[in-house]
Prior knowledge:
The protein has 13 helices and 12 strands. The protein is an alpha/beta fold. The protein folds into 2 domains: 6-167 and 341-352, Glycogen Phosphorylase B (Rossmann fold, 3-Layer(aba) Sandwich), CATH 3.40.50; 183-338, Rossmann fold, CATH 3.40.50.2000. The strands form 2 sheets. The chain has a 6-stranded parallel beta sheet with strand order 2-1-3-4-5-6, with helices on both faces.
Amino acid sequence: MKEHNIKIKMFLAGDRDGPSCYYRGYELARILSGKDVNVEIRPSHIPTYPRRKSKFAKLYLYTLNFLKRLSEIFRIKKDEIIFIQTAIAFWGSPVLEWIIKNILGNKIILDIDDAYFIYKPPGLQKILGPWRSRILVKLSDAVIVGSHYLEEYARKYNPNVYLVPTSVDAEKHMPLSKANKPVIIGWIGNPTGLRYLNILKESLEALTKRCDFEFRIIGANEYETDVPAFKGVKVKLIQWSRETEWQEISKFDIGVMPLYDTEWEKGKCAFKAIQYMVLGIPAVGSPIGENRYLIKDGINGFLAGNADEWINKLELLIKDESLRWIVGAKGRETVLKNYSLHANAKRVLKAITY
């Protein structure tokens, strides 16, 4: 296909509040859109992070979403390329994708940034989850993945796989000078990720006896009760919003990305660390999944695999401001080279127009 007059319709898995939807959807569309490429975004009809709801309320939302998606696909034009993030609907068999490919005859590009093929929620989805993922990968004309682990999985079922990390606009997000006292260690994430902070509990509590620091958590929002009870640690909760996200991250001196060592986490795309690094903030992460490819221990960041390593590496950064600047600068170099939104948008366009 020639790269002109390209029409792309994006079916996203959430709305603008979801990091994956925003950076792999809205931001990507912003860079791709131009005189030769037209991108139309169709966000999910369910909020990315809805408040806690009953099973019946969720069933209603999912059913309504499915019906609305069904009505949308019959408005697809013949010359549109269909970009699907994860899946068009939240549950059930990939019937909507099958209709697009086999009845409407449109080209499908599937984007995956989490290991949904091993995700086993309750009920019928225990069967449909992994099975649906395989069918979607096989059905698609090309698959875009956000990590090496996801690439390995997708290549089992589809030869046209493109590794495109979740990327940031490095031209918009620049390092800022700061003189925080005490030093600020920070974490940003969505409410479902708050469980990872339990990994840091023992280390941060021990670190308070050796260093002066503040721990900031961005993204708990109405889920404050899910934040671990850190004893003796100065903790500050920051309300997340799309408008203030980068401003708040830029205040960090050190950014952390703890992860459990499970199959689900191996598919993670290391985006928290990428956010820290583009701002010249040294990142410390668990040596799990994409973190192992992004972070070169002691050079552009640090990897910490147990409580002692978390304590020692965080203490090193807290006490040495010059080290923070050196490691942070190397981290930004890494992002500019491999995780730039403008450069990786070209790789997405190549996958779409192969």
